[in-house]
């Protein structure tokens, strides 16, 4: 049976604008880490022919993720929505952590770099790297994963209870901006107690306003937030983000502001038809973006060091590291992320129904079968949400159909 939702999806073309934003965000992160971050982490890896110092890609991914959380959390069973999100993120992440950990340990003695411990591995697998100075990031770019998982959990918890609707929503949005700033400058300073630092950093309070931006843009597309209110909110978030870094990286904040204008245009305006001729490569690059994000940084540093030892020049190292990110990103997408998500989402509802059937109370003294569980199992290709990526790689296949019916 063709529902109104699937009919809308069949009538609505996929929007190229979201793919473009994803590509710009993820691949700017790749270039920024190769040309700017690698000489900071390992001085011998620089310089490169040019440097991209602007840090805006990861923030962009979190805003996009929050926007599509709003689009999709309202549809169907919240538990299944959450399971689908986690099932897309975690398998590829776990594989990437193990591979990066193994490679880092193998080359640490040879390069004189930090040797990650088994404790580091466990902390990274359980997404608690930021909660203690005793833990070290296997790959520092993974900071977005705990933030994104936390946002999914909160959305799944709060939405069914109505806490993200009505008059409380604008108050919540502004609290995401103001409260972390107060904590930052009142308590979370260099001499603060470690538990304060751990809580602030572990909860990523300096980044939670980014999810508020995604929610605010979605509200604006639904005519529940005025354009003036949205503009004021975006400016406030940009100022707050710059303040969290003590105003030492204002150019990155300005670049992020420009990208926010693009996100607003993609959400509320027409599709960017002028780029239709580049649909296939843009869509392909966007489709593997989560995998690229997972493997590009620390493994890229290792490759750059090997190439440097072989006498390869700056341009060669730049192209090789970028190509490696794309190749490995494609591999982890094709071999891990997509098949794991298909397998888990196909079996997850069945396993949940099996469990409920065994804990369900029996009908009273009739000897009848247990009360039947009622999960409506969704097909694997049911529309899904963004990650964050990071956001995840195949999400854009679903986003565009939903965006064209929800975002006008």
TrEMBL record:
Pfam families xref list: Acyl_transf_3 (PF01757)
Residue intervals passing through the bilayer: 20-38, 50-71, 92-115, 140-159, 171-187, 199-220, 227-247, 253-272, 284-308, 314-333
UniProt entry keywords in alphabetical sequence: Acyltransferase, Membrane, Transferase, Transmembrane, Transmembrane helix
Low complexity: compositionally biased ranges: 382-393
Domain Acyltransferase as annotated: residue spans: 17-333
Region (Disordered): 382-408
Protein name: Peptidoglycan/LPS O-acetylase OafA/YrhL, contains acyltransferase and SGNH-hydrolase domains
Protein's organism: Actinokineospora diospyrosa
